[in-house]
Specification:
Elements (H helix, E strand, L loop, with lengths): L1 H15 L3 H15 L4 H25 L2 H8 L2 H22 L9 H11 L6 H9 L4 H27 L7 H31 L1 H25 L2 H4 L2 H28 L4 H11 L4 H11 L2 H7 L1 H27 L1
Amino acid sequence: MNQTAGSFVRRALGRLRPDPYILALLGMVVLASLLPARGEAAVGLGWATKLAIALLFFLHGAKLSREAVIAGIAHWRLHLTVLASTFVLFPILGLGVMLLPETILPRQLALGVLFLCCLPSTVQSSIAFTAIARGNVAAAVCAASASNLFGIALTPLLAAMLMGTQGGFAPSAVEGVVVQLLAPFVAGQVARPWVGRWVDKHKRLTGLVDRGSILLVVYSAFSEAVVGGLWRKVDLVEIVILLIVCAALLVVVLAVTAYGSRLMGFDKEDEITIVFCGSKKSLASGVPLAGILFPGAAAGVMVLPLMLFHQIQLMACAVIAQRYAARAKAG
């Protein structure tokens, strides 16, 4: 009996033990708050992040078989499900947030939440988390990239419809997706006959690049937010309320994408892809789009919900990805 109780206590304590990767993510937030990258350091960090992401996509391209990539492109039901979550479910929930009284959430911050709901999915973190969780990476590359490219047109249109703004296009975003993400992936596919076997033997390297690129994104994004006066724009109470709203928004979307994909008959790998690609919002696309859609003074506050949501989604999805991976390994 004592041995059974002792075993139970050890298992419980093991579950309560902080995950080193989560601690690393929190460490990036604290580091960015205390020592944000500025000036030349921020420029250098930006290039380092881009190179890490490009390397990540090259490795994924070299690792995936041509058959898997073709299957990923042809998986139209999955892509439509991700797009529906990104550009239909999220905006509906954003309109629901607008119904909150201003005494709970100031209108400007509520508009910021609605704006983030109109944005496309992230690309690099969606695919990285899908890879960590052992989901359908080929489909994730296609779904996340398609979401980002369609978002260049859909986000301004949705913002114009729901917020009364006049939208515009950001051609540089297309260039960024193509040059930084798709081109390295295609290069990896081309180089697969020569480097594919080596990549297969060094899977730990791909895992390190997955996690390392996300750490760089967290530090870079939060540094930019801190330098931009994140902690001076709103008071602590408003930040706490906004954090609760953003967390609730993410929980609802995660639940709908997870259970909805199961009801629609997707297998576990596709479910993982839908969950991670359909629940994200892109800070990289959102910040420049906000500068186009809103006046300079309003843009700063408008992207604050996105900055907070971005951090919450990275933290939450890191935990979920680790759990998916643990279940896959146990199975």
